[in-house]
Amino acid sequence: MPSGKTHLKFELATLPLWTIGGAVLGVPWRELVIFTFSYVGASLLLSPDVDLANSAPARRWGALRLLWLPYARLFRHRGLSHSILFGPLTRVLYLGFLSFLVWCGLYLALGLRLGWRWPPPASAAAFACGVYLSNFLHVFLDRLVSRWRHRSRCG
To answer: In this structure, is the dihedral angle defined by the CA atoms of residues 25, 128, 125 and 130, taken in order, positive or negative?
Structure first.
């Protein structure tokens, strides 16, 4: 498998291609910005390797990386965490669940009533595209390198 640095370099090196492509296709600036931030955020913090205790994505969480221990126990590495469809979904839902727990804690402890508004569909789609494309490139690179190494060993 490629190293974490290789994944990150590959994902960040292709980012201009995606943003320029989106601009050429007429994607509004607001959605391009949301896409860019979610893509970079997913590359840095929500990589399929965040479930590995000593991975670069896990270390970037600092002390909060302990929050990913239950996730790592639920989803074995390179299983669902590396699924193109379900990997990002599990990580986003997991973070959403943790956020909900914090929200409930603030409400119960302090009586804070934190409101919630659903984002506009175009913004939600831009966010999802950023998270999913970053994940897709990670998994694609893993599979490409695995096949290349397998073929070079088998002659």
So the answer is: negative
Kind and range of the H or E run holding 106: helix 86-110
Q: Is 112 left (phi over 0), alpha (psi -120 to 50) or beta?
A: beta
pLDDT at 154: 63
Secondary structure in 3-state letters for 28-75: CHHHHHHHHHHHHHHHHHCCHHHHCCCCHHHHHCHHHHHHHHHHHHHC
The upper half-sphere exposure of residue 72, i.e. CA atoms within 13 Å in the direction of its Cβ, equals: 15
| Residues 39-48, mean pLDDT to the nearest whole number | 95
Residue 30's contacts (CB-CB under 8 Å, 6 or more residues apart) are: 122, 123, 126
Do residues 53 and 72 touch, judged by C-beta distance below 8 A?
Answer: yes
Cα→Cα distances 80→51, 76, 90, Å: 11, 7, 8
Residue 79: the pLDDT is 79
